[in-house]
Design a protein that fits this description.
By secondary structure, this protein is α+β, with helices and mostly antiparallel strands. The chain is 27% helix and 24% strand. The longest helix is centred in the first third of the chain and has 21 residues, at 2-22. Mean pLDDT is 85; it is low at 16-34.
Length: 251
């Protein structure tokens, strides 16, 4: 009986506490029903532990015919979703950006728009391969920030920067030296574009190519590389292919 009375009293106390909490008026950020009602804000979503503050793209690890890459930068909303699309502005931080707009990149979205009932949106930036050199020092960086609009304000102003780094660099110096010293009589002089196309068949794993070099599978890939440049005369490249390798064209 004593245990029953203790349980009943506890239940009544919990009910009273719950009723009292529902009557609390939350100033500023919350309505009386407990729902968030502050001014909506947006921020760059850096992921867990803020590890993703920089996006890195290397064109050298993409097929050579891919002339561009689109980076989607996630942006999140603080507050309740809107019943209509709302937007926040975007700007490039000029003094921290080394890339040239129009030549090396384009901002697809001048505004980041959250669709109706959504807490997440994306800022899209298009990177242009043709404007990026092939040396390590040619790496470029874009620094972006969000800007207040009538719809939205910027949250966490101390973290309001997102960086995109990109290049077209792949160190082929050792391969070029070895190629021209040993393989040029069979495969012609080293050509970086041709080499990168061959490497693509090995998922850009240079060690795998080295282990497979001059094996039947590699020679069949060499034939496919030759065929690619024959089908794409815009590159102006003719791949050297001696007659004794023609038996590998059917691999």
């Amino acid at each position: 009986m004593k245990r029953y009375l203790t349980f009943l009293i506890s239940l009544l106390l919990c009910g009273w506490t719950f009723s009292a909490c529902n009557m609390i008026s939350y100033p500023g950020e919350y309505k009386t029903d407990g729902f968030y009602d502050a001014e909506r804000q947006a921020y760059f979503d850096f992921g867990k532990e803020n590890k993703d503050t920089v996006a890195y793209v290397s064109f050298s690890l993409k097929p050579i015919e891919e002339s561009e890459a689109v980076v989607e930068v996630p942006v999140r909303l603080v507050g309740t979703p809107s019943d209509h699309p709302i937007s926040i502005g975007v700007e490039v931080v000029a003094d921290k950006t080394s890339a040239q707009e129009g030549t090396q990149y384009e901002i697809v979205d001048k505004m980041v728009t959250f669709p109706k009932d959504s807490l997440k949106a994306f800022l899209r930036v298009r990177l242009l391969r043709a404007g990026v050199g092939e040396k390590a020092e040619d790496r470029k960086e874009i620094v972006l920030k969000l800007v207040d609009t009538e719809d939205l304000k910027v949250a966490f102003s101390d973290k309001n920067e997102f960086k995109i780094r990109f290049d077209n660099y792949f160190d082929t110096s050792a391969w070029e030296m070895q190629w021209n010293a040993y393989y040029s009589p069979m495969l012609g002089e080293f050509n970086r574009t041709v080499f990168m196309k061959l490497l693509e068949f090995y998922h850009f794993d240079a060690a795998a190519l080295e282990m497979d070099f001059w094996q039947p599978t590699m020679l069949s890939y060499w034939a496919k590389t030759k065929k690619f440049f024959e089908d794409h005369p815009e590159y102006g490249i003719e791949v050297f292919f001696p007659d004794y390798l023609k038996l590998y064209t059917d691999f």
